Amino acid sequence: MSIRTVNTRPFSDQKPGTSGLRKKVPVFRQPHYLENFVQSIFDSISAPHGATLVLGGDGRFYNRTAIQIILKMAAANGFGKVLVGRGGILSTPAASCVIRKHKAFGGLILSASHNPGGPDGDFGIKFNSGNGGPATESVTEAIFARSKIIEHYRFLDAGDVMLDRLGETTLGRMRVEVIDPVADYAELMEALFDFDAIRAALAGSFRIKFDAMHAVTGPYAREILVNRLGAPADSVMNAVPLEDFGGGHPDPNLTYAHDLVEIMYGADAPDFGAASDGDGDRNMILGRHFFVTPSDSLAVIAANATLVPGYRQGVAGIARSMPTSAAADRVAGALGIPCFETPTGWKFFGNLMDAGKVTLCGEESFGTSSSHVREKDGLWAVLFWLDILAVRKQPVETIVREHWAKYGRNFYSRYDYEALPTEAADGVMQHLRANFSSLTGKTFGPYTVQTCDDFSYTDPVDGSISKNQGIRILFSDGSRIIFRLSGTGTEGATLRVYLEAYEADVSRHHLDAQEALKELIEIALRISELQARTGRDQPTVIT
Ligand code: VG1
Ligand code: CO
To answer: Which one from 91, 96, 113, 325 is the annotated catalytic residue?
Structure first.
């Protein structure tokens, strides 16, 4: 076994996006491509000799190959130990949990989240720090800078590591421990939630359906919901993880989780339905014939947090990404706790949680979590809802309607225009940037523009500034239209339009969100000239 220094040439396209580096599998399979990026990470994070690394992914195509390459590179770069999930599997929240629990220096998570997988699908990789959270912007920028000038990487010539049996082996001087990917995570969940209460509910007439979408949460959901909480085995559907997610799009929303949606809107629907994404960090919550928007879910969780053992002492603060609706702000206001508004992406929540400023955080993109880890956490959100339901013993719909009656309803929707030509998407954003200042004071039907800006965030903990995080058009009644370019797509550009309208009047809470937001949608299209500039009449996905 010998360590080789391999000569290489940089690629120019390894800029990490919202959640690490995401590319098509054929891009990752180019000679030296993965190796260059991994070495750029190792060169940028100053891990001490002998440090421990956590490694795992969502099991998609190329996961196993990438794990073997990374193990050999970690050994050649002086790591002392790697904790790797059995079969190369770790959901994103479980990886965060393992990094924290075992006090690792950091971890590498292999995932392209909800993007489709397979030989022509997507793959991704990101580095998480010792707090269990995605690397901050300064670290990801250093990795990108390094990737542009890299000339060598280090590699240990050795045979592959057996990933399917638990236990310890060595690779050169480095120890490799294959761990149960579920155990640490399941133990943490038991510490936070009242498993007895949930078990009692499930032993009665309360029925649930969880859709793992053939992605990583299958084994986690089986262990927690079925083995530990006693739900019938068929409560978990599409539970076997597949390298291509069964050809599906493992994105838990009303469009892609259609199997579950049909069940939850059908005759004899269960009381509670939920789904998670490719890497297990997203969640969708459904009641019988009822959809809970992710923004409302965060607000309901915050308002009911003290019903749950792990949050009995209360919530220090809430953080939400800028495009997420202000429903959580109203709960924070009522509780007298701060609410922070951050740019999109989980990396911005880490500093706030490390500093003890927030307990709960969430994004409109089906992400919710707390300071128990430093990632969003799909099953955690499901268990939080199950615990609330077990205590309150009311249907999901009643809980949400009561919430709206008390705090008002934030109608919300997101329109995604995927795979646009980059110039067309950039053109819309440039047009908006050039013109938004002239909108102030203008009136469109019942809406008057109060201010417009390009969102900029100053981290309250380290003072770092993130600019150009999305165009905001803010109306005097609290309604908002936001335009933002996605940082996770792998094909052309994706333009997201976020729409929100606040409604205090209970007699209007029954309205359909699309109906309630109709005028705002028209205003958004008019202001942005989106249809003319992109040639698209309809969005690809509406959530
Ligand atoms: C999207 C979402 C964002 C989320 C990110 C990663 O980013 O909008 O809220 O944090 O995906 O989610 P973008 O830049 O495409 O809008 V996932 O489940 O990778 O882990
Ligand atoms: Co994800």
So the answer is: 113
